[in-house]
Write a structure and sequence with these properties.
about 1000 residues; alpha+beta; Barwin-like endoglucanases; 4 domains; 12-stranded mixed β-sheet; 10-stranded mixed β-sheet; 35 strands; elongated; transmembrane helix; cell membrane; ABC3_permease_C; membrane; Macrolide_Exporter_MacB
């Protein structure tokens, strides 16, 4: 048997070489895909973790209400828990603490003054020293924020007495020496400061008291001094930052599990030494999201692998049929010589086994080298996924599985059986398409198999249409003159063998064109998602409150049109959102000019006021200023008595280009209570030139406690007047509001379809949106499928100017800015030098979604599928033409015998195959286009696994598809021409004598 196998292999080596080539290509593709979903996927997770922003990898432990005697032990135990949670990675732990509120004596009348101490482990990284030096340990020194120092009127060298703690077991007072003035840094955690880094809040109210206070702070002292200084801590925060630069995917799983269990361990360790403790981190959810994105990518890569299996199976099916036809006489002779069916099966099995072993020997190193080479090409190399040649167990299994396809028998079926299987395939493909339409984040076998099933179903339908088209061409060719063309069409139309390679040609062409179109569709969808997710070309999310003139600074640095924007969660009436997601407010400053009073930088503004009656009346003016980009900032001043004397307001106009658009004047009656009766008339003059069009109002709650509000021009000043009730509810605002514009009333908004459906609202409906502490009435003007910058969310979009005007009219001076949106930025990279906060660009987000470490494997696999499909198509076509001409050698010799020249014979044979190839390639292109429109929207998923927002728009890249089709046509015609020329030379008189 082995002698027969070896002799036949030597005699039919071209045929076996073609079969080996087909099997090796398919097994190589499977091996590369196996490496992409194993080694590359694991490496992608590691690279993604190493590239994660610090905020996503930090693990923060919080402790609230730590007693004086437990501060040091709680801090040490918390550090130990965090280090244990970060095992096995090296970790850096930093801490910050804030003491309980202390009294601040000697700060005048009005609301009581309070202060607090803070210690920050890495203070030099979180603040910028503006003047003086940092505090030294053990010296009783402190650094103040610029706003705190300005409101207290202190400089470096000043000594500030601080009273005892306002606690049940208070620590005694102390005196600190101010040695420096500092400014906060963006993104340095100042949002978790008791005053959010503001330095001064005139109406502070902590959780331990219902009374409003004037809060100053923090007094930044040495961290170790505060740790051992005997003060109780209102809050303690320790942050661990594991070093993930050299991570392993198994260690990342261990890290995620450790972080998830840290909260429970911290509670057990701290016990009753603290009132509240918690461990928070985005790290487990970030790793889980990356894993989900990894599964989504693996699903698409597996779909590519299944397409490769289908192509290989089609090529082997063709090779099996052709081999059986070529060996039909040989098999009949062996049977006649007494060879049994079992022996024939053994011979075929031995031959297939040798081919499979050779295919594994070829495909295993080839897939290893192909994978290593693929990782050195975009986008895998840009994603940091360059890999050395390596072999994995799953790769070996995939290569062996691809090689054993040679053992699959090729059944001889009747036309009726083929029709039944074709119908079953179409029904199965339709079912897979319908099942894949479910909007689920679950990665299942349906989406993996759907592309191959739909392409195969399209191919069998297309092949049913080819014979009628060829018969129609045959009827047309009969009217042509000459012999070569009619004979070629006749052979193509009437010989079943002529379209034997039809399935492989159509499937190969459709797979290649589908891969190109799916790649373009996937990239387009990722860019669309990036454009919708990032509200502008450049978005700078602020880490600290915006300051006056900041918009002009951003515009000067990056260029383009700079606009302030709000992006935050809000409450709509009593609705806080569904599924744990709060409704999102997206508000951007639109075009238009706001009226206001221009003020120049450094101008010494003064406030002069007086009140009727004998009691003392105090006001805390809040000036709202707007710069050229539409940013509104509030200058909060100290308490000013209405004693008829001018009081300066230093530091309110730090830059040029500002204008005063509103003044809020909270009125404080220190000696009044609920039972106090009577009223007082107040008159306050602000040293800015008056202007027409200003309006005045009284803020809620209990707006009737301040009546007859008015704003007028008085000489060169803006005069505000009102009648104030001395008694009444303590929670009454008693705030006089003066604005350069009228109350806008109801603010028009646009809502997303999800928002409208969840609340069952539509255009014309009125709602109340809680922004900060003020309820703003809004009216829905229209409903959009999605709100930009909030894809998939229940979101509201509004004009930031109108929203801010409504807030000011309701006594809320804070401008709701969370980010800067820049359109047409000339130099987006310059934004990093501003140190304002996190930076996102549409191009950067698109690059993350397309060339990031996790999704990069998909375009790599698609670009591998195209050459694999082309090579399989060409290999099968060469095999088909060779076997066809070998079987027709005697027929060709007879044509030579009746006088046809070699050129005429070649033209006839070439024409026959060309006539078949052209419609097959066109049919394959049509099937690929149909699959693009039907399957691509189902395969493209967001990084979370659900359907992307906005919906996928299929793309058919005409230049690339035209080039591919031209390449296929030229390659197939060249292959056919070469085979025809070689085989036609062998049709000589010897074949004619054999036939006779």
């Amino acid at each position: 048997m082995w002698r027969l196998v070896t002799r036949r292999a030597r005699a039919q080596w071209p045929l076996l070489a073609a079969v080996l080539t087909v099997v090796s290509i398919g097994a190589t593709l499977l091996g590369v895909c196996a490496l992409l979903v194993t080694r590359t996927a694991d490496r992608a997770l590691e690279v993604a973790a190493a590239r994660a922003v610090p905020a996503d990898t930090a693990v923060t432990a919080y402790a609230v209400a730590v007693g004086r005697g437990d501060v040091a032990s709680v801090e040490a135990d918390t550090r130990a828990v965090l280090r244990e949670a970060a095992t096995p990675f090296p970790v850096t732990v930093t801490g910050r603490m804030s003491s309980v509120i202390r009294s601040l004596p000697g700060r005048g009348g009005g609301a009581p003054a309070v202060a607090y101490l803070s210690g920050i482990d890495d203070l030099t990284d979180r603040a910028t020293l503006l003047e003086g030096r940092w505090p030294s340990p053990g010296a009783g020194e402190a650094v103040l924020l610029e706003s705190t120092a300005r409101m207290l009127g202190v400089r470096p060298g000043s000594r500030v007495p601080i009273g005892a703690e306002l606690d049940r077991e208070p620590a005694p007072g102390l005196t600190l020496t101010v040695v420096g003035i500092a400014g906060v840094r963006a993104g340095a955690g100042w949002d978790r400061d008791p005053l959010a880094g503001a330095g001064y809040v005139p109406d502070y109210r902590d959780t331990s008291s219902l009374r409003t206070s004037r809060a100053f702070g923090p007094f930044l002292v040495d961290y170790r001094d505060l740790l051992a200084g005997g003060s109780s801590m209102s809050r303690m925060e320790l942050t661990a930052r594991p070093d993930l630069s050299q991570s392993d995917h198994r260690d990342l799983d261990r890290l995620a599990a450790g972080v998830l269990g840290a909260d429970r361990r911290l509670a057990a360790v701290l016990g009753d030494r603290v009132q509240i403790q918690r461990v928070a981190s985005e790290l487990p959810s970030v790793l889980a999201a990356t894993r989900q994105q990894q599964r989504v990518t693996a699903s698409a890569v597996l779909a590519v692998a299944v397409l490769g299996v289908a192509l290989t199976a089609a090529a082997l099916r063709l090779a099996g049929r052709l081999t059986a036809d070529v060996r039909a006489d040989e098999t009949a002779l062996l049977s006649a010589a007494g060879t049994s069916r079992v022996q024939l099966a053994g011979i075929a099995g031995a031959e297939s086994g040798l081919l499979a072993l050779l295919a594994v020997a070829v495909a295993l190193p080839l897939s290893t080298l192909a994978h290593a080479g693929l990782t050195r090409l975009p986008p895998l190399d840009d994603a940091g996924l360059v890999a050395a040649p390596t072999v994995s167990p799953l790769q070996v299994l995939a290569v062996v599985a691809g090689a054993v396809l040679v053992f699959v028998p090729v059944p001889a079926r009747s036309g009726l059986a083929r029709s039944g299987s074709d119908i079953a395939l179409v029904v199965l493909a339709a079912g897979a398409w319908y099942a894949a339409r479910a909007d689920s984040a679950r990665v299942d076998a349906v989406r993996v198999l759907a592309p191959a099933l739909l392409l195969a179903a399209g191919c069998v339908i297309a092949l049913r249409l080819v014979p009628p088209a060829l018969r129609a061409a045959d009827r047309f060719a009969r009217r042509a003159r000459g012999l070569a063309f009619p004979l070629a069409v006749l052979e193509a139309a009437r010989r079943p063998r002529a379209v034997a390679a039809g399935l492989l040609v159509v499937l190969g062409c459709s797979a290649a064109t589908f891969a190109v179109a799916f790649d373009a569709t996937w990239h387009r969808s990722q860019r669309d998602q990036a454009d919708l997710t990032v509200g502008a070309d450049l978005v700078i999310t602020l880490g600290t409150p915006a300051v006056a003139g900041q918009g002009v600074q951003v515009a000067a640095a990056v260029g383009g049109e700079v606009r302030p924007a709000a992006d935050r969660g809000v409450a709509v009436g009593q609705w806080l959102g569904g599924s744990g997601e709060a409704p999102r407010l997206i508000a951007v400053r639109g075009p238009g000019v706001t009226p206001g009073i221009p003020v120049t930088a450094g101008r010494a503004l003064t406030v002069t006021g007086q009140a009727t009656g004998t009691g003392s009346i105090v006001v805390t003016p809040q000036l709202v200023l707007e710069d050229g980009t539409g940013l509104r900032t509030t200058c909060v001043t100290r308490e000013i008595p209405l004693d008829g004397r001018p009081h300066p307001l230093p530091g309110c106009v730090p830059v040029d280009g500002l204008k005063l658009v509103a003044v809020l004047m909270p009125v404080i009656v220190p000696e009044a209570d609920f039972e106090t009766t009577g009223t007082t008339a107040i008159t306050v003059d602000l040293s800015v030139p008056g202007a027409d069009g200003w309006t005045a109002a009284s803020a809620e709650p209990f707006a009737d406690q301040l009546t007859d509000p008015a704003v007028t021009t008085h000489g060169s000043s803006l005069r505000l007047t009102a009648e104030v009730e001395l008694g009444g509810p303590m929670e009454a605002a008693r705030t006089l509001i003066a604005t350069a514009f009228p109350d806008p009333g109801t603010v028009p908004v646009t809502v997303s379809q999800r928002f409208a459906s969840q609340l069952s609202v539509g255009p014309g409906d009125d709602l109340s949106v809680l922004v900060g502490v003020a309820a703003v009435p809004v009216t829905i003007s229209r409903v959009l499928p999605e709100v930009p910058a909030a894809p998939g969310a229940a979101a509201i979009s509004a004009d930031l100017d109108g929203l801010s005007r409504a807030l000011l009219a309701r006594g809320e001076p804070d401008f709701p800015i969370d980010a800067w949106w820049v359109t047409g930025a000339a130099d987006a990279s310059a934004a990093a030098g501003l140190h304002l906060g996190d930076i996102r660009t549409r191009t950067g987000e698109a690059a993350r979604l397309t060339t990031g470490p996790v999704p990069a494997a998909l375009p790599g696999a698609l670009r591998l599928l195209v050459p694999a499909a082309v090579l399989l198509l060409l290999a099968g076509l060469v095999l088909h033409v060779t076997c066809d001409l070998h079987a027709r050698a005697v027929e060709v010799a007879r044509l030579r015998g009746i006088g046809m020249t070699r050129r005429e014979i070649r033209a006839t044979l070439l024409g026959q195959h060309s006539i078949v190839l052209l419609p097959l390639l066109l049919a394959g292109t049509a099937v690929g286009a149909a699959a693009t429109w039907l399957v691509s929207p189902l395969l493209v998923r967001s990084e979370t696994g659900v359907a992307p927002v906005p919906p996928v728009a299929p793309v058919w890249p005409w230049p690339a598809e035209s080039a591919l089709l031209a390449l296929l046509l030229a390659g197939t015609l060249l292959a056919v021409t070469v085979v025809v020329v070689i085989q036609s030379r062998r049709a000589d008189a010897a074949h004619l004598r054999v036939a006779s």
